[in-house]
Amino acid sequence: MCGIAGIVDSGGVSLPLYYALYALQHRGQESAGITTYHAGRLYKHKAQGLISEVFNREILEGLYGTAGIAHTRYPTTGENRPENTQPLNFTLKGHQFSIVHNGNLVNNDDLVSDYEEYGHIFATTTDSEVIAAIIARELTISGSMEDAVVLCMRMLRGSYSVIAMLDETIYAFRDPLGIKPLCIGKTENGYMVASESVAMDALGADCIRDVRPGELVRINGNGISCRQITRSDRSALCIFEYVYFARTDSVIDGVLVYDVRRRIGKMLHHEAPVDAEMISPVPDSGMSIAVGYSEASGIPFKEGLIKNRYIGRTFIMPTQTLRENAVRMKLNPIRGHIKNKSVVLVDDSIVRGTTSRLIIELMREFGARMVHFRVGSPPITNPCYLGVDFPTRKELIAHNRQPKDVQSCISADSLHHVSLEGLIHATGHSADDLCTGCLTGCYPVQIPNERSSCRHIDFIHGSYQTTLQF
């Protein structure tokens, strides 16, 4: 899970890219970087840390140019190493080339082996460099970035939203199933692409639409053009974008995330009503789910936990020890709200269960009489191979455990997960157009030793659209 952005704007791009990254900080906290292009050279800065730690005014003022791309990283492939920080930057036959990527390739190791046979030397352990290698080799053969993207879509298996910059032109493309989000916006003097619409809101830009699955978007000083490279009988948007990853105020594939989470909350009440005195969210992603539960149940919404805004998201912290130590620093119960109360505590998901258990123990320590846990996703029973940190089944608390056993593990008085059918209904999408592999064990792409329901993908031979189609 990462956040990416690319902008071409005659008014300059370093500050807009910085603000866009700030709006996408929730998608990754390990590292950040910006690369811009001006007068035949790249200007770049990247480092490990939060965006506020990586950049300052002096650095941003030195990133010249009217085209640029940016990235904030949470690693799913590749270790926490400085060389894995993006954008990745290259010089190729007199041209300047940079790339950022959100997603995860399931055939990364095979592709690395193939390209090493061609003589390619890899300088990182991230799968983003494999995409760069495919593009670079095709550029040396055909000289066409469009042909290189077509080749990517033929060779890559997994999830990917990619933004590449070849000199002053930006190319953005989304995998044929649309697993990871990407959208198009209009800035004051140009165009942009970004992982979520909130990046455009932060700049006062207009979000035009989502990049379609299998679509290539080209942006330069002359404007924007689009080409549909593939069509699929079904898409496979990651359902957890709506449950957890995306910001609540984002619009993902035409659907406002806040509305989805509010509907999930209402569904939770209808599926498992409980007699309680207050509804309390686990902030922040449980907030709008709790609002929906309160509206449907008539039980008052009251915050029982206050979040320290200067602590990051514990789920995407890279080690379990950091996640556990962060909980007490991150969340503090309000004793006066929860003492001697029966509380419905609402969270978006339970992954390993450690955080949920610690939060419930905190609520009891501060006086809650009963804690009923309601969860905005079905039990996560399978790993994710497509860009989410659900790495192994043995780490998932719900794998091979019944709900009653999980309830006991996290010390809740009652536990209910929203049903898969209820969650899908809340998204407004068809079940056939969502990736639910972590919930069902059936994945939209072929993965060794796993069940799959692969989509049929056709490649289209056609010319560019000269204007955006809605």
The residue fraction in helices comes out at: 25-40%
Question: Major β-sheet, in short?
Answer: 7 strands, antiparallel
* Coarse morphology: globular
Q: Give the total of beta strands.
A: 27
- CATH class call of the largest domain: Alpha Beta
Instruction: Please give the domain count.
Output: 2
Give the oligomer, counting copies of the same chain as homo and different chains as hetero: single chain
CA-based gyration radius: 22 Å
Name of the CATH architecture of the largest domain = 4-Layer Sandwich
Please supply descriptive tags for the structure shown above.
29% helix, Glutamine Phosphoribosylpyrophosphate, subunit 1, domain 1, alpha+beta, 27 strands, 470 residues, six-stranded antiparallel sheet
Can you lay out the helices and strands and say which pair or pack?
Layout: E1 3-9, H1 14-23, E2 31-38, E3 41-48, H2 51-54, H3 57-61, E4 67-73, E5 88-92, E6 95-105, H4 108-117, H5 128-142, H6 145-155, E7 158-166, E8 169-174, E9 183-186, E10 190-194, H7 198-201, E11 206-210, E12 215-220, E13 223-228, E14 230-232, E15 237-238, H8 240-245, E16 251-252, E17 255-256, H9 257-271, E18 278-281, H10 287-297, E19 305-307, H11 320-330, E20 331-333, H12 335-338, E21 342-347, H13 354-365, E22 370-375, H14 403-410, E23 414-417, H15 420-427, E24 434-435, H16 437-440, E25 442-443, E26 451-452, E27 457-459
Parallel strand pairs: 15-24, 18-21, 21-22, 22-23, 25-26
Antiparallel strand pairs: 1-4, 1-10, 2-3, 2-4, 5-6, 6-7, 7-8, 8-12, 9-10, 9-11, 12-13, 14-27, 16-17, 19-20
Helix pairs in contact: 5-6, 9-10, 9-15, 11-13
